[in-house]
């Protein structure tokens, strides 16, 4: 597991270093060389994602193999698991809805502020109202968790 963590750290550092190089010296990257570099960065990202997946699998297996986890997992039923999924759904759908609302309200707010900067305060209120949708979903989830 230490090898995987070391490789993931090296991968992140390599991505950061290549990004800094491309930012500082964009004129030194030729067209043919940029395709090769993009491919190597893509391979690096794929290896990083697969390393994270393997690391999560190993950690999950270690956690489930412990004695405390096996004793507690016997008490969880299918109904309880479905109830937990149902409790999480309001937050999930509310955040998706808030993201859609903030995207459209934010774009319209930027257009209005460009034409009339004095309407900045009103646009912030509208953005706050759109973001409130996610908070309502979180409140519903907290209330439902209290019922279990």
Task: Quickly give the structural class.
Answer: mainly alpha
- The poorly predicted ranges are none
| Oligomer designation | single chain
Helix content: over 70%
Helix tally equals 5
How would the global form be characterised?
A: flat
How many separate domains make up the residues?
2
List the helices and strands and how they pair.
Blueprint: H1 2-24, H2 31-65, H3 67-73, H4 78-115, H5 120-147
Helix pairs in contact: 1-2, 4-5
Short précis:
This protein has 148 residues and is an all-alpha fold. Helix content is 89%, strand content 0%.
Describe the structure.
The protein has helices at 2-24, 31-65, 67-73, 78-115, 120-147. The mean pLDDT is 81. The chain has two domains: 2-72; 77-147, F1FO ATP Synthase. 89% of the residues lie in helices and 0% in strands. By secondary structure, it is an all-alpha fold. The two termini are 37 Å apart. The relative contact order is 0.08. Helix 4 (78-115) runs antiparallel to helix 5 (120-147). The longest helix is centred in the middle third of the chain and has 38 residues, at 78-115.
């Amino acid at each position: 597991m230490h090898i995987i963590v070391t490789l993931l750290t090296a991968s992140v550092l390599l991505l950061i270093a290549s990004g800094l190089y491309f930012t500082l010296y964009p004129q030194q990257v030729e067209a043919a060389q940029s395709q090769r570099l993009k491919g190597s960065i893509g391979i690096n990202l794929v290896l990083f994602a697969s390393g994270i997946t393997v690391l999560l699998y190993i950690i999950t297996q270690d956690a489930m193999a412990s004695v405390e986890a096996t004793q507690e997992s016997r008490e969880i039923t299918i109904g309880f698991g479905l109830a937990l999924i149902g409790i999480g759904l309001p937050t999930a759908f509310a955040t998706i809805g808030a993201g859609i609302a903030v995207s459209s309200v934010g774009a319209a707010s930027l257009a209005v502020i460009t034409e009339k900067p004095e309407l900045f305060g009103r646009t912030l209120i509208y953005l706050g109202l759109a973001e409130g949708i996610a908070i309502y979903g979180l409140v519903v989830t907290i209330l439902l968790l209290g019922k279990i």
